[in-house]
């Protein structure tokens, strides 16, 4: 006992480092480095064994606590001889006196990371509830929080990437803010860990999508050149909620080539990707300022690409092109060489190409189009995600809008019922219009967008924009509206009918629905009610 007492009460001026790791990456580096700097290494269980194998002399925690690990390892470091040595303030005499009275030595460095709860509960095949509970770390967060609170006297490290900086700091390469940075990272690390545990337990017990309290852990992916405008600073964060693991989306896309992504690039790429993934057949979507300005589906993806650009070649120039099929050599050549339909000469320029995959040759060809072209490989967003949006002082949360034509019924309320081809056109237009900013109108035919009007304060102006873009092709085409028409006569519905539209799809629900029905009956146009609104702000 005399020997262990001597260990638990180090001589004045001796330095101790506590190391307890689940992730043992670079353990030998930090262990040997601290030992070479004169630190006595105190450690637990598997970490102690790994250090000894690396040639590091180790004092085991139980030699300080005089208690073995107990309760299947649940209790190792939860002891005054550990936490007293971490939390004691060196500038408070009564703290030091208390340590001396009880034979407790101080810790100058605490290196801890936590049980891999996040990885365990998101692993393929899932995890049994009891296994999840056993992977909730208790002692680790307690030590991290204690050391971070007392960062003036204790250096706390939770990230293996900080080992070299820690050793440099201890060698005398001082950074006035280093201790504070480590403390911030420690508390952030524990907060993210706790948010994962909380999210998992909520899902296990209640499962409601809208809990009374919600924490969204975000991890910085990149600093951006600027925000929406050059005078705004910006950064991009990845959502680290458990629900987002392997759930797809632009945030986790692989960038194969091109300039770094900008704030607006992320918004536009997200809009294009979300839209193109809605379609089952080979499809190309062209987006400008988050609005799809061209959409086409064809068995031949080359034809789909050409038609999507043709829908609005002026807007397509400098836009984002998205595909829901692999980009191979042939498609890549078409993207690289395609000339603008406006003059037949100008080679089309794009900010981004996004697709689920690329062949090696296809990727090589696209890289040759432009040094700046951003080439993204993305995974489809899973359905059922929680959609979050910030307002001043708060957040709005809602289910993602995942409905497709297969999920709803297109009810014919007019005297004329649509032919099969007209119904397919209406379904295609309806699927496009849900991705257009309100007030939104889309005109489409033969699985191709002919024109769209977006973001106007009134629906009539959106209709007129869409019809102007569609031109003569409007005859016999389908029109979809994201919301009901508040007026029909001498308004949007009658203008559409007079232009030669063959079928109109809208949610219905207006007090003047009968006017819309009567107007369509007068002009021999099919009117379909979907009973589903698609506002997009």
Give me a quick take on this structure.
Pfam families: AICARFT_IMPCHas (PF01808), MGS (PF02142). This protein is an alpha/beta fold and 537 residues long.
What can you see in these coordinates?
The protein has 20 helices and 21 strands. It is an alpha/beta fold and 537 residues long. The strands form five sheets. Strands 8-13-12-11-9-10 form a six-stranded mixed sheet, sandwiched between helices. A six-stranded mixed sheet has the order 16-21-20-19-17-18. Residues 1-12 have low confidence and may be disordered.
Structural topology:
Layout: H1 2-8, E1 15-20, H2 27-36, E2 39-43, H3 45-53, E3 58-60, H4 61-65, H5 80-87, H6 93-102, E4 109-112, H7 117-121, H8 129-134, H9 139-149, E5 155-157, H10 163-170, H11 178-205, E6 218-224, E7 234-239, E8 254-257, H12 263-276, E9 283-288, E10 291-297, H13 301-310, H14 313-316, E11 319-323, H15 329-337, E12 350-355, H16 360-367, E13 374-377, E14 386-391, E15 394-399, E16 411-412, H17 420-433, E17 441-444, E18 449-453, H18 459-470, E19 478-481, H19 492-499, E20 503-506, H20 513-523, E21 526-529
Parallel strand pairs: 1-2, 1-4, 2-3, 4-5, 11-12, 12-13, 19-20, 20-21
Antiparallel strand pairs: 6-7, 8-13, 9-10, 9-11, 14-15, 16-21, 17-18, 17-19
Domain MGS-like: 7-158
Organism: Pisum sativum (Garden pea)
Catalytic activity: IMP + H2O = 5-formamido-1-(5-phospho-D-ribosyl)imidazole-4-carboxamide; (6R)-10-formyltetrahydrofolate + 5-amino-1-(5-phospho-beta-D-ribosyl)imidazole-4-carboxamide = 5-formamido-1-(5-phospho-D-ribosyl)imidazole-4-carboxamide + (6S)-5,6,7,8-tetrahydrofolate
């Amino acid at each position: 006992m005399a020997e262990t007492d001597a260990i638990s009460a180090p001589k004045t001026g001796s330095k101790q480092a506590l190391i307890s790791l689940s992730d043992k990456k670079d353990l030998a580096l930090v262990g040997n480095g601290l030992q070479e700097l004169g630190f006595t290494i105190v450690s637990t269980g598997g970490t102690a064994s790994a250090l000894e194998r690396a040639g590091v002399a180790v004092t085991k925690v139980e030699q300080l606590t005089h208690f073995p690990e107990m309760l299947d390892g649940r209790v190792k470091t939860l002891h005054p001889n550990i936490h007293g040595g971490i939390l004691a303030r060196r500038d408070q005499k009564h703290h030091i006196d208390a340590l001396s009275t009880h034979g407790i030595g101080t810790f100058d460095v605490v290196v801890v990371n936590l049980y891999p709860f996040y990885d365990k509960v998101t692993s393929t095949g899932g995890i049994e509830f009891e296994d999840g509970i056993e992977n909730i770390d208790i002692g680790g967060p307690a030590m991290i929080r204690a050391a971070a609170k007392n960062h003036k006297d204790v250096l706390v490290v939770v990230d293996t990437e900080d080992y070299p900086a820690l050793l440099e700091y201890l060698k005398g390469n001082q950074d006035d803010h280093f201790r504070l940075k480590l403390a911030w990272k420690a508390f952030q690390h524990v907060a993210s860990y706790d948010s994962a545990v909380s999210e998992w337990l909520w899902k296990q017990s209640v499962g409601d999508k809208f809990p009374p309290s919600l924490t969204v852990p975000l991890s910085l992916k990149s600093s951006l050149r600027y925000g929406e405008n050059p005078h705004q600073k910006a950064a991009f964060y990845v959502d680290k909620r458990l629900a987002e693991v392997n759930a797809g989306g632009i945030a986790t896309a692989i960038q194969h080539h091109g300039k770094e992504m900008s704030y607006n690039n992320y918004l536009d790429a997200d809009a294009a990707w979300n839209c193109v993934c809605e379609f089952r057949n080979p499809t190309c979507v062209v987006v400008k300022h988050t609005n799809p300005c061209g959409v086409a589906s064809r068995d031949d993806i080359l034809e789909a690409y050409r038609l999507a650009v043709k829908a609005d070649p002026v807007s397509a120039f400098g836009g984002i092109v998205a595909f829901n099929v692999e980009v191979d050599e042939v498609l890549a050549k078409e993207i690289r060489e395609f000339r603008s339909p406006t003059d037949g000469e100008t080679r089309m320029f794009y900010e981004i190409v996004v697709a689920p995959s690329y062949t090696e040759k296809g990727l090589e060809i696209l890289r040759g189009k432009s040094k700046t072209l951003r080439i993204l490989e993305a995974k489809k967003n899973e359905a059922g995600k929680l959609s979050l949006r910030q307002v001043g002082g708060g957040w709005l949360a809602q289910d993602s809008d995942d409905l497709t034509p297969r999920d709803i019924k297109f009810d014919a309320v007019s005297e004329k019922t649509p032919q099969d081809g007209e119904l397919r056109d209406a379904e295609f237009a309806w699927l496009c219009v849900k991705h257009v900013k309100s007030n939104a109108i889309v005109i489409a035919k033969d699985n191709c967008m002919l024109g769209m009007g977006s973001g106007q304060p009134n629906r009539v102006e959106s209709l007129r924009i869409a019809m102007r873009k569609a031109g003569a092709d409007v005859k016999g085409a389908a029109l979809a509206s994201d919301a009901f028409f508040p007026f029909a006569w001498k308004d949007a519905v009658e203008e559409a009918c007079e232009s030669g539209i063959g079928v109109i799809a809208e949610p219905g629900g207006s007090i003047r629905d009968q006017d819309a029905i009567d107007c369509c009956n007068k002009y021999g146009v099919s009117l379909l009610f979907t009973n589903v609104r698609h506002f997009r702000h």
